[in-house]
Design a protein that fits this description.
Order of helices and strands: HEEEHEHHEHEHEHEHEH
Distance between the termini: 35 Å
Radius of gyration: 17 Å
Number of helices: 9
Low-confidence stretches: 1-15, 238-247
Mean pLDDT: 88
């Protein structure tokens, strides 16, 4: 548990908010070996239900390609973990989903030549199928940990939903990060924007909907502005010194 405990070690600076108990914490002492990323709301902008069903709907979140490129230059492996029930619902075919992902890959490398996925884990099932691979199930997370031969304490999951955080915790991922982009800000009450420096959320005292109630079951997690902000924090260790990579 060294990785998680180092990443979530205590600090004294508290971010005031009436219902959210949080604190500023330093980044991990070591760079994580594996980064698991949700897609919609984290890498690309969320377009709402039923999700991206056309490549032209894809828009990267600010700095997403650059962030993935930075991770890979630092030796991290990066994997996509995404539910795509639009296939199970027959809104698009698996072949067309591949076209969407090919376009996403192109957008990423146009922003940063190193911005690539080492693996992609996709669940096309519908919720009613009760597929254990579908988030909040841990199936895809466990597959990734096994494929990369990495334990959960050497891994980070970055997502924007309660189901992302639940899947990560169920899969044994020690460090879970929620982004303000996508559904993240809404989950945090709608008026609690992530500070520039990510904070650890220890407890939430309100629950206006079920997803917010679920968040208390997956604390602690780290709250960041977006994927780029999460990566900036993760790589701010003794080897990086907060200095951006050369372009």
């Amino acid at each position: 548990t060294a990785f998680a405990s180092n990443a979530l070690r205590s600090a004294t600076t508290i971010i005031p908010h009436r219902h959210i108990h949080s604190e500023i914490i330093p980044p991990p002492l070591t760079v994580p070996r594996l980064i698991l990323l949700d897609r919609d709301g984290v890498i690309n902008e969320d377009v709402g239900a039923p999700g991206v069903v056309d490549p032209n709907q894809l828009r990267l979140t600010s700095g997403a390609g650059r962030a993935i490129g930075r991770l890979r230059r630092r030796g991290c492996q990066v994997a996509l973990i995404t539910n795509q029930s639009c296939v199970g619902k027959k809104l698009i075919t698996e072949a067309y989903l591949m076209e969407i992902h090919n376009h996403l890959k192109q957008l990423l490398i146009e922003e940063d030549i190193d911005a690539m996925f080492d693996r992609m884990y996709i669940c096309p099932s519908r919720k009613e199928d009760n597929d254990p691979r579908m988030k909040p199930g841990s199936g895809m997370v466990l597959e990734a940990l096994a494929d990369f031969e990495i334990n959960g304490e050497e891994c980070v999951f970055i997502g924007d939903t309660a189901t992302d955080m639940m899947a990560a915790k169920a899969g044994g991922v020690g460090l879970r990060m929620l982004t303000e982009t996508g559904y993240g800000r809404g989950l945090m009450g709608g008026n609690y924007g992530a500070p520039i420096s990510p904070v650890r959320i220890n407890r939430i005292d309100y629950a206006s909907n079920n997803d917010q109630a679920v968040l208390n079951g997956v604390v602690p997690f780290v709250y960041a502005t977006n994927l780029a902000g999460a990566v900036e924090w993760l790589l701010r260790d003794g080897n990086d010194n907060g200095i951006p990579d050369p372009i």
